[in-house]
Design brief:
single chain; globular; alpha+beta
Length: about 210
């Protein structure tokens, strides 16, 4: 998943740098140079590279205009809160959102199925929005882009209005405060199913066994 996102960012950089979309030969060179799976055997590598190439080509086919609007790639942001500074990188930032020069859209690529009600992913984009607005940028939209989905289901718009963005900063501040106070009380529940460390967490395992 990370490698697909990495290649997607390189595709965006190529388009912005050369003023033209990558053709088949350009994609071959990008994958040869950038797609890297150090622990995969040959058969696994070929299978995953074929799948990755399919995802990238699907994006180029269905969201061609995005690449002509790229404003920045892997743009770092830092959100200054009362109890912590939260840093991150937006995968891609698009210009001319809604046809307005300087109107930006933050796009976060995902290589797994994206649930429309995934609060954690919404929180991430709202945090980026708050940080970008703190720098004076005009952020008009935030999108989660599911690279595995068909065109009609690929893009989920996240509400980045003033109220949800403010609520996100409050939530992040509360989480940061818990970390500072070393409050790591487990809160298992349905969200455990989507957690990356679920197989290692005894609290998550108990929660999923109950379900």
């Amino acid at each position: 998943g990370r490698e697909v996102q990495h290649v997607m960012r390189r595709v965006a950089e190529h388009t912005r740098g050369f003023g033209a979309l990558p053709d088949a030969a350009d994609l071959d060179r990008l994958f040869d140079r950038e797609f890297y799976l150090p622990y995969a055997d040959r058969a696994s590598w070929e299978t995953m590279e074929t799948r990755a190439r399919s995802l990238v080509e699907g994006y180029l086919r269905d969201f061609l205009e995005d690449l002509r609007r790229v404003w920045e790639v892997e743009r770092p942001f830092e959100l200054h809160l009362t109890d912590a500074n939260v840093s991150g990188r937006a995968d891609v930032i698009l210009d001319r959102e809604g046809g307005i020069d300087g109107g930006l859209a933050l796009v976060d690529y995902k290589t797994r199925r994206v649930a429309a009600d995934d609060a954690n992913l919404d929180l991430q984009l709202r945090a980026y929005t708050a940080a970008a607005q703190g720098e004076g940028f005009d952020v008009r939209a935030g999108y989660l882009h599911d690279l595995t989905a068909s065109k009609s289901h690929a893009r989920h718009k996240v509400d980045t209005g003033p109220e949800p963005v403010h609520e996100a900063t409050v939530t992040l501040n509360a989480l940061a405060r818990r970390v500072r106070e070393r409050d790591y009380q487990p809160t298992p529940g349905a969200h455990c199913k989507a957690c990356d460390v679920q197989p290692l967490c005894r609290h998550a395992q108990k929660a999923t066994e109950k379900d």
